[in-house]
User: Which sequence fits this backbone?
């Protein structure tokens, strides 16, 4: 058996294979908005400092403030207390050098590593005459470090924001102080509100948006904007963590989080779960109503390379009845998906978009047999996998390009023009997967027919009938994609109806004489009846061809005949 890839090295296709296979129930559960995402600092590494950067910063902050002339300098006392949290040996104490920067100390790396697991005790060190959160507010510099307006969302934040817009992630709990998820959501909605950020109990009463973000350790953005109101809710010190659940001002948030643990399965990404308040919260929820095991979908899944001690302990608490020596390894196998947040979220995004298109195939009118619809859905998966093969370079560039292309295609398909003003993401549907079939608007939206076309394109690509390439978004006449069949390059345009096709022409997206295939979801208006070829000319080049998917489906043929008719009508 080949060795499984490391969670950081796994490809998007390998992650999709897990979501199609052993973690299919997880993918389906996320697509149905059944999971709560629990997020930790791991999803923001590379954008904001992690503990490996924060710990030396705090120690150097104290060292730099030492007054060497003072008999009892309060900063030296505090630094000694901080170093004591690292349990230095006698030799290490002897090598401590207050005269030189911490980064140059011989034991700096060892001290930092120990304090990472004791960061809460480090930040609880008192500096005489200063507020209890002095090290957090001044040394860590929460406002400058985590609320910096120059911070840009990374892949993880953009994927989460996209999944919010797709209606499949409505509740998120995070220990992170940064505002990167909020910024990603703002970018995708062109500034329109879509998230309720809940830190204080009063936030729970705000008007409902597409998603609720429970920042149970506080929010640097809000603390910067309203220091008096939100600075006390920044949780980092051991004393705060230990007393968090018991404080009256936290009761509403604690109860809300316990409720969602009981109601929805947990997908934990970038969160070690080492803090005592997190462990206590999940134990409290399990005491109220424990999750069964096995369960479909699984009640608790960790995005890690291997489970840590705190995560193993959590599983024992949340499965108090099912967790036995006989079931232990099986529980661990179903609770660990070996892909870190970045590849997992990209794969989930592709999987859910594909699942929605496959669901739309089911809504297409016509007498297609279940086996024929399944074949079309296999074509959609072929498109997905081809897209996934392009995702393992710079994933941020890939994701931004994907979102831009999807939004452009949606606008051209629906409105016959590209977006004006600020860019915003257009979801496939704004409802989760299980609600698609019951949405009456979708039946007349043209999307089911567009899904059928996607399946046909995927079948043709899979079977070697053609290759597909992206259109050039900088060229308004480039269509939505390009089909290369037998050396002939055809521009492809999908439109919901004839009105959208007219608007495409009016807005300069369709040019007479271009080799372009215009595919209508609805019937083609009589005045726009298709002509497979332009009048004979010296060049014999193909011009614009138009076909109605509704018309093709009404003929009652199977998927093979449907593909043949599609090729013949468009001369590809």
Assistant:
């Amino acid at each position: 058996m080949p060795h499984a890839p490391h969670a950081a090295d796994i490809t998007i296709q390998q992650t999709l294979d897990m979501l199609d296979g052993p973690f299919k129930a997880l993918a389906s559960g996320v697509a149905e908005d059944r999971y709560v995402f629990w997020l930790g600092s791991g999803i923001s590494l590379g954008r904001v400092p992690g503990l490996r950067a924060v710990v030396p910063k705090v120690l150097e902050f104290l060292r730099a403030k030492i007054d060497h002339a003072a008999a009892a300098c309060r900063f030296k006392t505090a630094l000694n207390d901080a170093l004591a949290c690292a349990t230095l040996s006698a030799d290490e104490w002897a090598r401590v050098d207050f005269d030189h920067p911490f980064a140059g100390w011989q034991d700096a790396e060892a001290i930092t590593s120990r304090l990472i697991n004791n960061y809460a005790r480090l930040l609880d060190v008192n500096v005489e005459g200063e507020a209890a959160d002095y090290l957090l507010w001044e040394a860590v510099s929460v406002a400058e470090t985590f609320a910096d307006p120059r911070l840009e969302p990374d892949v993880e934040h953009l994927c989460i924001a996209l999944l919010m817009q797709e209606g499949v992630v409505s509740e998120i709990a995070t220990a992170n102080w940064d505002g990167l998820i909020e910024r990603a959501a703002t970018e995708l909605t062109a500034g329109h509100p879509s998230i309720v950020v809940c830190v204080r109990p009063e936030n729970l009463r705000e008007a409902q948006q597409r998603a609720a973000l429970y920042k149970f350790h506080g929010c640097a953005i809000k603390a910067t904007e309203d220091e008096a109101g939100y600075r006390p809710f920044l949780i980092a010190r051991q004393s705060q963590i230990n007393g968090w659940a018991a404080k009256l001002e936290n009761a509403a948030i604690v109860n809300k989080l316990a409720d969602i643990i009981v109601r929805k399965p947990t997908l934990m990404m970038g969160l070690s779960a080492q803090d005592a308040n997190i462990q206590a919260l999940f134990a409290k929820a399990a005491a109220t109503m424990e999750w069964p095991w096995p369960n479909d979908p699984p009640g608790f899944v960790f995005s890690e390379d291997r489970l840590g001690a705190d995560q193993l302990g959590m599983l024992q608490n949340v499965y108090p009845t099912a967790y036995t020596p006989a079931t232990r390894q099986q529980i661990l196998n179903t609770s660990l998906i070996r892909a870190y947040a970045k590849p997992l979220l990209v794969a989930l995004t592709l999987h859910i978009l594909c699942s929605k298109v496959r669901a739309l195939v089911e809504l297409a009118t016509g007498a297609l047999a279940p086996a024929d619809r399944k074949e079309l859905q296999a074509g959609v998966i072929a498109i997905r996998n081809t897209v996934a093969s392009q995702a393992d370079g710079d994933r941020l560039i890939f994701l931004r390009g994907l979102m831009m292309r999807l939004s452009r295609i949606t606008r051209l398909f629906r409105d016959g023009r590209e977006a004006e003003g600020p860019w915003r993401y257009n979801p496939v549907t704004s409802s989760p997967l299980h609600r698609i079939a019951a949405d009456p608007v979708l039946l007349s939206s043209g999307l089911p027919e567009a899904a059928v076309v996607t399946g046909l394109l995927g079948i043709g690509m899979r079977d070697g009938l053609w290759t597909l390439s992206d259109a050039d978004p900088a060229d308004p006449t480039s269509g939505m994609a390009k089909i290369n069949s037998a050396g002939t390059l055809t521009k492809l345009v999908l439109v919901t109806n004839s009105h959208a096709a007219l608007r495409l022409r009016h807005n300069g997206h369709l040019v007479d004489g271009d080799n372009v295939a215009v595919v209508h979801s609805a019937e083609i208006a009589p005045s726009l009846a298709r002509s497979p070829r332009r009048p004979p000319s010296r060049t014999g080049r193909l011009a614009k061809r138009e076909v109605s998917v509704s018309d093709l489906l009404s003929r009652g043929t199977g998927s093979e005949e449907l593909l043949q008719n599609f090729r013949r009508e468009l001369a590809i």
Notes: Confidence is low (pLDDT under 50) at residues 530-540. The first strand starts at residue 36 and ends at 39. The two ends are 43 Å apart (CA to CA).
